[in-house]
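Table S2 (continued). Query chain:
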Amino acid sequence: MRRAALLAVCLLALFAPLPAAAQTTPQPFPNLSVPPTMGIPAAPADPVIPFIDLTVRNPESGREVAFSLQLLLLLTALSLAPSIIILCTSFLRISIVLDFIKRALSLQQVPPNQVILGISLFLTAFIMWPTFEDIYNNSFAPLRDGEITVQEAYRGAEAPLKLFMARQMRSRSGQRNIELFMSMREMPRPNTLDDVPTYVLVPAFILNELTIAFKIGILLFIPFIVIDMVVASALMSMGMIMLPPVMISMPFKLILFILVDGWGLLTDQIVRSFL
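Corresponding output:
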């Protein structure tokens, strides 16, 4: 009897509803963020990166259209700058002459082509420095300061370059090259340099540089060809037919080139040919 009463009391205590005071509501999760007043630094803000917006819109005036076209022409000129440096400066003649001397010495990989092009580039900068200074002072600097327009800057850069090319064509062969291209365009005989358009002067200058470079190459080949002939004749007389003459003549050509200070003489004559 007692056991039954005790079991009933336990069941009643287990399933009976809790009083209102005992019922607890769920508490929100505590905020664990650290206040900035404590010694710990706050998280860094988003990095400030400039926003670039490329938009295409209709021009508001004719000046904007003209400026866009001028900018397009300027970018085109910059893309053609390597060709201009190669063909309208002293680079063409120097690179061809250095390649000729390499072949005359029977050298295949020494010096490498990159070294020859590098030497040609720095010799070109040395020779063309006065012309580049005139172009900078008459064209680039005034355009940067907003003193002249793009057309005036083009004319300021064109004049020193045309003057340099005209100085290299003072010989009769150079004048014939100019007359050749002028006759192809059926243009009258020019009296001054201003009468020769740039599109006529540039191809005439290229032909003139090729002609002069090949003339220098022929003069460079003559002494080394003599050495090759002497060595080949000596090997033939001794019956050494199977021995390549180039293998024997190359050390003698290098010795001769070093004894006469070939690089110094060659550089001196190349630079003087442009003065």
